[in-house]
Each structure stands twice: as structure tokens, then as C-alpha cells.
Amino acid sequence: MKKTIKKLYMLFLHPILFFTNTFKNNLFVRSGQIKRINKMNIGKNISFGRDTRINFYDKENDKKLYIGDGSYFCNRVTILCGGKIVIGKNVLVASDVCFFAENHSIDANSSVPYMKQDLKFKDVYVGDGTWIGEKVIILPGTSVGKKCVIGAGSIITKDVPDYCMAVGNPARVIKKYNTDTGVWEKTSK
After folding, report:
1. Taking the CA of residue 122 as centre, how many other CA atoms within 13 Å lie in the half-sphere pointing to its CB?
2. Which listed residue (24, 104, 158, 186) is catalytic?
């Protein structure tokens, strides 16, 4: 019954996504703004919460957003693709998280205002099984490894290795999971 309700919801509120993905991939989008879905390559059983925003900022027609099977995105998630964004399988994304693979140029000597300067693109990667906490911002050119935990409110400005816990602004690794002992261990500063 629950699956039927989800499919009807998708049919009436997101008809294009419904016909291209719902039966094939079990994609569920509650509401939001998703433009240029032809640039997405998504796995099965993906769910987006309310007010999802996905935009693409390049002129090429190739795929720019890859999402692995079983990933779940809570409410108000923003994904801005200029560069490629690859999100692994079974990634849990809390509300108000932003993924940025583009940014404005900031040439202060130019007479062109920042908002009209060319965009710069850098890829973003998030590994399988990672949990991204509430209000996290992932900046262009960064990667988060597999099975990581990113604390709420963190800003990812540099790469986070596999099996690490990172928090803060800018985010820093505070713990690493020891696969031999099965324990999160504090890292030295």
C-alpha cells in the first residue's frame, strides 16, 4: 500500500521523473526543483525529501550527478552541479545539506561583478555508506571517503579519508574507525 501511495504521489507531482525513474529505480521525490534530469544517473531506491533543489550549470550534455543505490536525502537538500558530483551507495544525508561542485570566480580586478563572472567547476565525491549530518556544506573539489560520519554544521573544505569522523568549520578529522577493534578512536591533533 505504501509503495502504491508513493507511486501515485510521484505521478501527480513529478510526472517526468515518474515515467523515467519510478518503476525502474524506485525513485521518490517529495517536492522540490529538479532541472535537467537527463544529466542524472541514479541508482535504485533513492529518496529525496521536501524542497530538494538540483541544478546543473554547465553547457555540456553529459551526466553530472551520480547517486548510488539506497541513498536517502532528507528535506531541503541542495545539489549544484558544475563539476561532477558522485554520491555512493547507501549514503544518508540529513536536512539542509549543500553539495557544491561550482563557484563564482572572484577576480577583484575585473570590472565584471562577482555574480556575472565565469563559474569554476570542481568535482565532489562522497563514498559508500557515509552519514552526512544536518546543515553540512560540501565545497567544490573535495571528497568524503566511505563509511564516514560528518558532524552537523560542518563545512568540508578538504578531503576526508575513509572511516573517519569529521566536525567543525572548517571540518577536521577527530576520530578514525579501527576496523580491527571495531572502535572509533580519537586522532592526534
Report:
1. 14
2. 104
27 close to 46: Cβ distance less than 8 angstroms: yes
For the question of residue 14 being annotated catalytic, the response is no
Contact 137, 152 (CB under 8 A): no
CA distance 157 to 187: 19
Read off the amino acid at residue 40. M
Q: Which amino acid is at 189?
A: K
- Tell me how far apart the alpha carbons of residues 178 and 43 are, in angstroms, rounded to a whole number: 29
Tens-place pLDDT, residues 71-84: 999 999 999 998 99
Largest CA distance in the chain: 60
Asked if 50 contacts 77 with a C-beta cutoff of 8 angstroms, the reply is no
Q: Is the pTM of this model over 0.70?
A: yes
Q: Please give the grid coordinates belonging to residue 152.
A: 552537523
